[in-house]
Amino acid sequence: MQRRDFSESKVNDTVCGHRLVELEHQGAHGAIWRAVDLRSDRQAIIKIVDRVDPCTLQAWASLSTFTIREFVEVQTYTTLGHSAAIVMEHLQGQTLGRLLQMRGRLPWSEARRIGVSLVQALATVHQSQSALGVIDANQIALRSTSVPLEPVLLAARCQHPTFTPEQARADVLGLIKLVAQLCDDGVKDFRKTDNFGRVMQAQTLIEELPDPTDAANQLTQLWLHNRRRRITNDDPRVSLNNANLNTELRAWVDCVGDQTQSHPPEALWKQLGIDAQALTGDVWQLTTPLLGEPKEALTQMVAAVNRWQRENKGIPSNIHIRLR
Questions:
Q1: What count of other Cβ atoms lies within 10 Å of the Cβ of residue 157?
Q2: Which of 66, 201, 222, 225 could form a disulfide with 169 if both were Cys (CB 3.0 to 4.6 A apart)?
Q3: pTM, entire model
């Protein structure tokens, strides 16, 4: 009997010139199958979406043109009724999620390298006016499990919501949180002080992006907006203190306060091992080597900012803090 759509597929059915061999995952909106090419006997992965939408088809069309190693190869896709199927290369390596189950957390250097690769891949997706939605470790494959790990974004397995600048920034935020979790499998809430250091480090990966206009570098403004709304009910005069700074500070952080012209004395920062450089207006760039745990450097910065606030009765309009 002829199928009305791909959602009725079963083992040994033919989809896009491939024979379905094994159902790997069944979700609420579709399924992932392992399949074999009828002509070459090469293995492939087929994702079936029960009810496809234009955003997903647009994303698949873009993914089929990508040739960089950070993306799984998309071979073809088609629709049947309300459903659709996309054929991807089958990678022999395991997923990043499986690796974490076996090994636990990764060294920061390795997690950061993975993050840089994936953020650059994500920028490619956004340039095609597509979005990914939720990104988790099971949507990232590894070409091998030996160091250095080569991550491959299984982008076709993602949700593909409507592309907007806000969604693009949400994609980047999700990826940054994921990178933090690679280092610490106990990270559940990235705003908790105990987990803050790892998330702060994960933020530094956005500095590696080649294009400063990329959606990833717009994340600062989104975070600043959320910070104002959560802490001050949209009052831009944000008070700096240990409680909110420890939960909100990141690699690049804008702290908006009253428009005072006061600046911190450079000697104060130097005493704390922090290099302070005046840029333009009220903007300062602070740098510190991460010789110990990140929280130690952050604690010093918080203390310095609090002391500065007490001495100068206010804070400048912008403080840009970069940790290295």
A1: 23
A2: 222
A3: 0.55
